[in-house]
Design a protein that fits this description.
Elements lengths: L10 E5 L13 E5 L2 E8 L2 E7 L4 H13 L4 E10 L9 E9 L9 E3 L2 H10 L3 E7 L7 H10 L4 E4 L2 H10 L4 E9 L5 H12 L2 H4 L1 H8 L1
Helix pairs in contact: 1-4, 2-7
C-alpha cells in the first residue's frame, strides 16, 4: 500500500454496534449518507468519518462502500470478537494481521492482509496479540463450529462478522486498513451470556484507543 494513498482524506472508522464506537459517538456532526448515519469529527488533528454499520458482512460492506465515495484515506475497524484459542480471555485486545471470509464458497479472494504500518503503530499505543480475524455471517456459538475453525487455522485467531467485508472493499479501492477488536467471549455455548455480560464495559475500548492512534497516523 503506497504512502501517497494513505495520506489524504478523513479516516473511515467502522463499528457494528453502538457501544463499539466508544467516545467517537459523542460530539461531532451527524449526517446521513444514503440511510447510513455518519459522524464527522476530528481526533488529534485527524479528520474522521465514523459510522455504526450494523451487524454482518452486508452491512459492513455497504458502510465501507459509502465511505469510499466520501473520499476516506482508509479504514480502521473496531469492535468485539470471540476468542478461538486459549489465552484470549475476555478483555484481550487482538490486532488483525489477515481478515478471512470463512463462509465464501470459492478460495480466491477470501483473505486480505491488514496494512502493516497502521497495525504496528496501533500496537505501539495499544499492545495486544495479533492474528487472523475469521469473518462469518453468523456467530460461533456451537462447540463443533468453534473446533472446526480452530483446527483450520494455526496460531491466534478470533471470530467476527464484519472485518473481512471492510477489508475486501478496501482492497478494491486500493486503500489501507487495520482492525482492533476486544474479546468478549470464547465463541462457544456460553457466547450469548458472556457477550451480554462483557459488552457494555469492553466494547468501547478499541475505538477509544483511536484518541492515541490517530495523532500518530496524521
Amino acid at each position: 500500500m503506497s504512502d501517497t494513498i494513505a495520506s489524504a482524506g478523513p479516516f473511515g472508522v467502522i463499528a457494528a454496534l453502538p457501544k463499539e464506537l466508544g467516545s467517537l459517538a459523542e460530539g461531532g456532526v451527524a449526517r446521513s449518507i444514503g440511510r447510513l448515519e455518519v459522524i464527522a469529527t476530528e481526533v488529534g488533528g485527524a479528520p474522521v468519518l465514523a459510522t455504526i454499520s450494523g451487524v454482518g458482512k452486508v452491512c459492513a460492506a455497504r458502510a465501507a462502500s459509502l465511505l469510499v465515495a466520501e473520499g476516506v484515506r482508509g479504514f480502521l475497524v473496531v469492535g468485539t470478537c470471540g476468542g478461538l484459542v486459549r489465552g484470549l480471555v475476555p478483555g484481550a485486545l487482538v490486532h488483525c494481521t489477515t481478515a478471512f471470509q470463512t463462509d465464501l464458497a470459492v478460495r480466491e479472494g477470501r483473505e486480505v492482509e491488514a496494512y502493516a504500518p497502521w497495525r504496528e503503530t496501533w500496537k505501539s499505543v495499544r499492545p495486544g496479540a495479533e492474528g487472523w480475524f475469521l469473518t462469518a455471517d453468523r456467530p460461533v456459538i456451537t462447540p463443533w463450529r468453534r473446533l472446526r475453525l480452530r483446527r483450520a487455522f494455526q496460531g491466534i485467531c478470533v471470530a467476527d462478522m464484519e472485518t473481512a467485508a471492510v477489508a475486501a472493499v478496501a482492497r478494491l479501492g486500493a486503500l489501507p486498513w487495520a482492525a482492533l477488536r476486544i474479546v468478549t467471549d470464547m465463541a462457544g455455548p456460553l457466547t450469548a451470556r458472556r457477550f451480554r455480560e462483557n459488552y457494555p464495559t469492553l466494547a468501547p475500548l478499541p475505538a477509544d484507543s483511536l484518541m492515541d492512534l490517530l495523532p500518530r497516523l496524521v
